[in-house]
Design brief:
Elements (H helix, E strand, L loop, with lengths): L10 E5 L9 E8 L2 E5 L5 E6 L3 E7 L2 E7 L4 E3 L6 E5 L3 E8 L1 H10 L10 E4 L2 H15 L6 H19 L15 H13 L7 H8 L3 H12 L3 H16 L7 H7 L5 H12 L3 H7 L1
Antiparallel strand pairs: 1-2, 2-9, 3-8, 4-7, 4-9, 5-6, 5-8, 7-10
Length: 284
Amino acid sequence: MDQKSTLAQGTLNPVFRASEQRPLVEVVETSATQGEWATPAVKKVSIALARSDFSAKWRGPRGLRSEDVSAGTVAICEFDRSRQFEMRNDAEFGIVMMSNEVLEQVGQETRHIRPELQTRDVLKDSTLRSLMEILLAEKQAGFRSGLFFLESVTTTLASYLLRHYSAAAAVLENSTGGLAPSVLRRSIEFIQTHLEGNLRLSDLAREAKLSTSHLVRSFRQSTGKTPYQYLLQQRIERARSLMRDHRASLTEIALASGFADQHHLARVFRRITGVTPSSYRRSL
């Protein structure tokens, strides 16, 4: 499976766009109809997820293939190469395209001299499927969880791809301990200072003077939580504190705590505490 750059039948959603930066990841939903289906060359790391069963014939790196593909199957697309498919039925796809810089950064951290991926046309990998589905669900929800969450998932996806599907082995196994106490303290202060903003994982990594992948691993070793899990916990703690003032509405509390809106606060609050914000507030 490959993708069209704008995927004429799909919808393109760039995220992680800093003021003058290209998008670091793009999430696309698209469909193919029965018959000939052409996809152009794309100079990005591209992963496709079949969202429906389909049958097709195409020419891959190992020659002509004819397959019955089930929903949930993943493909690591060939870099910068167009494809022609003969679709025997209509099909739906989700596609994630990462900028090459994401893979290169993780590759440096994991000691992969050549951060390139194997092309895999038909792949059963539940972890890869789950990461794809998380990103697609975020797109459908309007990326409500924010840039910090999306960057965290994308970094995890890039790390997983290099660990399991790299075209070249790592020079040596990279191992890291937790963060130095001063770096951990600075990182926590940075998170707490930016709770209500649209904080990016790359901002936190820059503050810690680490790569994003190194930061995620080391922060988890130091605290038992990923940076995103810690961020959510701190936002919930702030919301709890603000709820003691009954003059503030839940919408105001949600925005002041870094949530997109009251519904976003309610969903996360209940998942973490087991009760709704309204129930918690009545118990005070």
